[in-house]
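Subject: mismatched residue count in predicted assembly?

I count 262 residues in my input, but I want to confirm that the predicted structure covers every chain. Input:
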Amino acid sequence: MGRQCSSSVKQKLRKGLWSPEEDEKLFDHISKFGVGCWSSVPKLAGLQRCGKSCRLRWINYLRPDLKRGMFSQEEEDLILNLHEALGNRWAQIASQLPGRTDNEIKNFWNSSLKKKLQKQGIDPNTHKPIVAAEIQVKMEKDYSELQKSSKQAAYDPIFMSEFQETIDFNTPSSYRPYDPGCGFNSMPNLTNFDHQTDYSDSSGAYLMKESSSNSSNPRMEAKTDMMSSFSLESLFEFQFDGADERSYALASLSQELSEAFQ
DNA sequence: AACTGTACCAACCGCAGTCGT
DNA sequence: AACGACTGCGGTTGGTACAGT
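Triage response: the counts match. Full output below for your records.
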């Protein structure tokens, strides 16, 4: 319960839709005295409402500078652009649209624009094609698991000792053949991603794992996967044409690694 | 005509931030 | 620093209108 309206316990306050009489009282009061302390408005205007309710009614309905009617195409485009940049910061978005309120824009978004985007196959939260957005979520999840796994490995002294013996950090070529980047040129554009097709074979982790598949030593396999995680981290330094391709590769790689430590 | 589902929108609620004491 | 009063914001709810069956 909002603090301001909790006074309704002491004094019976009206709720729900505003009557024309109430609107008139509030409008007259603000016209005469201007917008001041909202908590004192109900008493001074002779209304059985809380100040918060009066403020909302003025801002969203009674204000004389409000624009009425449908949103124009220009306004719609502006909302889309601003939402992409700002997210659900309705007040900030409204500040860029004279005569429109945050509540109005929020309602317009939830009832119309959001569905419009979904129909076009665009995720309204990310403004990206839905498949790509799903993959990005998966990538973020898998990568955090990967980081966890890598940390666990780092606490295993035997593992780390063997790992350091294996890798010559001065010659990156020792693991370059497994560089995940090598599979990317053949990766599909994920904005047109086909759910039915398994592209995991294109990942560096797969190529790497396959090369070490003769090993029956689980520790060696884990080591191999650890190496791929190094390549994976270096991936973040790369600039690829398509971030979505990187996302998919990361998701695939991190899954391989996390499985190795299970 | 009666019922059901959906869209729209006004208003409410709770939280967080700010300010004064 | 702690507290209460107030304001502003974003999420949610509930009522109404309308379309479809």
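Residues 3-4, 16-17, 37-39, 51-52, 55, 59, 88-91, 102-103, 106 of chain A lie near DNA strand C (CB under 10 Å from a C1'). Marking this ticket as 'not a bug'.
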